[in-house]
Each structure stands twice: as C-alpha cells, then as structure tokens.
Amino acid sequence: MVEKNLSNLSDHKYTKGIIESPINNAFGQTLKLNSWTKERLPEYLWLGLILNYYGREEGLKRGENILYQISNMNLDIVQPKLSLFLKLSIVNQEKIYEIISSIIDPVILSPLTIVYRREENETFNRFFYINKQTVENRILVLKETVKKFYSQQSDSATDLRYLSICLPLFKGRVHVSEKVEMTIESLKNYSKTDHKDEKMSFYRPSIRSIELIDLEDPDTKFINNFWREVGLMTDCSPKYIAQHIENNDDYFLKDTQKAFENIILLNKEKSIEDPKFNVLIGSTGYMLKIYNEVISSGLKNGILGRHAFRTILEVFIMMKYLILKEKNNESIFKSYQLYGIGKYKHILLRLRESELSEESFITVPIVDVIVNEPMWEEFMNIDVRFFDQQNIKRKFEEVGERELYEIFYEYTTNYAHGFWGAVRESSQLVCDNPLHKYHTVADLGFDQKFPSVIYDIDKIFKKHIELLSSVYEFPKWYKLKYKELTYGL
C-alpha cells in the first residue's frame, strides 16, 4: 500500500535507463534541495529553545512578539536566522538581544553559548551566557531540542517553521495571492489553532510550503560549524534497526530431503543416463544443500542467508524455464549441462595461464575432471552469452514469476553485489543522537540481525516441489503431509 503523499512507481518516468521521480522530472536541474534538518534547523534553533521551554501556546506567543518587535527595527534582515544576527554590528546585536531578553528568560538561550563561544561572539555571550548552567546541562537541552524539531513533517517542527516565516511576514516580504484563501487563513490562524483541530490538516502543509522558500542562501560555514561542534562534544549511541531471532524448525527440509532420496531410488535408471533427471534432481540437491547450510550454520538472519535465498530462487526459475522450454527443445537439459561445463572450461583455461596458490579454495584438478567429464574439452565450445540467449529477467517473465524478480530477486541482488542499500541495512547501525544527525555507524561488533529468510526459502521450495510433482512421483507419506504441494497425485 502506497502511503499518503508518496508517488506510485507508475507515476515515475523512465528515461534512458533512469527512473525519474515525478518531482525531479517536472523541475529537472532547476530543483535545488534545501534540508530543513541539516541546513535550516540550526539557524532557527534559538526559536526552538523558546518553544521547547514554554510549550506551544506560550512559546508561539512569545516568539511572535519577539519577531514582531525585530521587524520594526530598521534592519535589512528578512529571516530570523541566528547567523544573520551574529554578523550584525555590536549595537544592532544588542538591540535584538535586549528585545529577546525582555520577553524570555535569557537562560533559555544559554545552551547555545556552548557552540557560539565568547571569543568569537562576545555580545551574544554577554546577554545569554549563564555561569550556573553546566556544560552537561547545556548539551542535554540542545540534544532534546534538536530531537524535538528534527523531523520536518512533525507538528513541533511545523510550529518552528511557522515562527521562522513570521519575520518576513511582519516585514511584508511574504506575498500570497488573494485567490489562495486557505494559505491566507493558515497564516492568520495557525498559532491560534490546536493541532487536534481538523483545519490543521490544511494549515500545516501551507505553512511548510511557505517556509520552504528560503529568501537567503544557506550560510554553509555557520551550518557546518554548528553540526561539527555539537557532534564532537557528544558520543555516538548506536542502536540496532532490529534484532530478529526465530526458532530452528527444519522439519520441512528433512522431510523434503527424505522424499527426494526416495525419488532417486525409484528412478535409478534415469539417474544413470537421463540429463533431465540429473539436472532437476541434482539442482534440487543443490538447493537443499544451501538450505541446510542456512539452518545448520545459523545464516538465516544474516547477509549470507540473503545470498542463499537468491541462489535458491534463481535455480528454481531456471528449472521451471527448462521444463517449459522442453516442449519445443527435447535436448534443452543436455544443452544446459554443457553450457554450465563450458563456463567451467572458461575458468580452467584462465587457471592454466595463472599462478594460483595452492592455498586457494579453487582446486584445479577437480575443475579439470569436471570439464572433461562429458567430452574431451577440445570438442567443447564456451558460450559467454546468457543460457538460451535469454537474460534472467526474461526467464522470470516467461515462467510467470515476474513479481518474484521485481521484488525478491532485485532485493537480494543488492546483497550479492554489495550495493549501498544492502550495506546500509545489514552493516550500519543508527546513532540515536540527534546532535549527530542520526548518522550511521559501522556494525563492527556484528550485532545487527535480520528477519529470517526461512519463510521465503520455504515459499520458493514449495513452488519448486509443486513444479516437480508434475514430473516425478513423490512418496505417499509426503503427499499426504504436503498435499497442497502435490495436488492431483
């Protein structure tokens, strides 16, 4: 289900290999992203401290009062950014800080003095540095305040974003067309309306859309200094995204293993000379062996469990594809075997030209035997194309498993290739410190655990068994126990 305000995949536009979001497609290079949290919140944090201290109703009143009085000063400042205040002359800074100090208790802004220290901001410290307030307390207040206003869509952040537009509003720098009645109503009534009021569902988006219009270029030096200072003075607090540990039931694996042992006994002649039997049952054994390693080695909650799932899924799709194509190509299973041996031959030829260490896990004599098993290698060609000249995506589509490709195969491919999404999910912990911008920390303690892959491996295996049940006779006990997989037999 698509969340409100989020676009569907069908809303995106495919252009030359890039799937563009609707916004990016509409604005292109003209769209300049400006982050509320990283760029604008540090500028307006002084107002956030006021809101946090007095609460919404009283905080908005005092904030509006301060900004209204500042708007009546003959200053060329259109936004209440702290960086702009700190650049003013001492006289003008004093006038602004006197206004602020007459409306709020100066101790409220004292936490900021740990970032904007006396040697560079003497005037600011003269008004707001409170000697009795400890360093620990100032850091704690900053941390709590940043956390409260961090999420740009939250009610609290919208309150702060409203205050940030009050100065240009009072100075007559915000122009709204009379035709946009809801926006005008939002500006007039926002601070007097409770968040529980239904009208706020219209007011909040209007306020946020106006606040997005930044009348000044970001002061990169000021912003970077803020995050550097608060980041270095506090420690990381790594948290797991999730930890999932499930039970170790492997009865389905064991039952399926026994069932296929029975099938092999009943088809001994086919196992000697039938490529189809060898490919289907051999590949099933490969899938079962991977499944067993996932369970016995405790891989189900880890990265390699996702690698294992992807391999099992790809083998299942290939078997389903071979069965489908056999109708028009009786020798497709033999061709599949030779295709795979050709891949090994390609490696073997390169091995012979290299100086592979004896310590390597690749055992050259074994590769040599496998390559020459079906025929002398000099008679064997190497096909570097996709098998049957169909890529894996096309094979998923041909066998009617497109969704498995688009979701599960694509997802686990991120793990197989080590793309950043997979790295982020598996190997990075969230630092639960708003002063660190909730950055990520490498999971060097190997603490992050995932949901188990067993449910989805079982799902693919059951599809595989359902497929093979139309080709080979399964034991009666297995058919009774898993009759939904071997229907009609």
Keywords:
mainly alpha, single chain, 2 domains, 3-stranded antiparallel β-sheet, 57% helix, 22 helices, two-stranded antiparallel ribbon, 489 residues
Q: Secondary structure elements and their pairing?
A:
Layout lengths: L12 E3 L2 E3 L1 H6 L8 H19 L1 H16 L10 H5 L3 H14 L18 H7 L6 H14 L6 H16 L10 H9 L10 H12 L8 H13 L5 E2 L11 H16 L1 H6 L1 H22 L6 H23 L6 H21 L11 H9 L19 H7 L3 H16 L2 H8 E4 L8 E3 L11 H15 L7 H6 L8
Antiparallel strand pairs: 1-2, 3-4, 4-5
Spatial strand sequence of the major β-sheet: 3-4-5
Count of discrete alpha- or pi-helical segments spanning 4 or more residues = 22
The major pleated sheet works out as: 3 strands, antiparallel
H/E order of the elements? EEHHHHHHHHHHHEHHHHHHHHHEEHH
Q: What share of residues is helical?
A: 55-70%
Would you mind describing this structure in some detail?
β4 (428-431) and β5 (440-442) form a beta hairpin. α14 packs antiparallel against α21. The chain has 2 domains: 36-234, no CATH class; 251-481, no CATH class. With 489 residues, it is mainly alpha-helical. The model has no long low-confidence stretch (mean pLDDT 85). It has 22 helices and 5 strands. It has helices at 22-27, 36-54, 56-71, 82-86, 90-103, 122-128, 135-148, 155-170, 181-189, 200-211, 220-232, 251-266, 268-273, 275-296, 303-325, 332-352, 364-372, 392-398, 402-417, 420-427, 454-468, 476-481; strands at residues 13-15, 18-20, 238-239, 428-431, 440-442. The strands form 2 sheets. A 3-stranded antiparallel beta sheet has the order 3-4-5. The protein has a two-stranded antiparallel ribbon with strand order 1-2. 26% of the residues are buried. It starts with 12 loop residues before the first strand and ends in an 8-residue tail after the last helix.
